[in-house]
Amino acid sequence: MIKRTVEISSSPCRLSLRQEQMILQREGQDDVSIPCEDIGVLVLDQPAVSVSGQVLTALLEKEAVILL
Question: pLDDT at position 2, please?
């Protein structure tokens, strides 16, 4: 299965975890959920990103690469 690359670079956001899914929350937009098992690479290229420890742990357990 091909894993997804998720890039966060355009606007501030908050990443949290809910039921093994990464929840992307941006002000004024609907929340987006992505299953952690589908993520192969997470690129954080935005200084105003808040990431919970649970997200980092869940992605690392699924062998995802996290680039800061």
Answer: 85
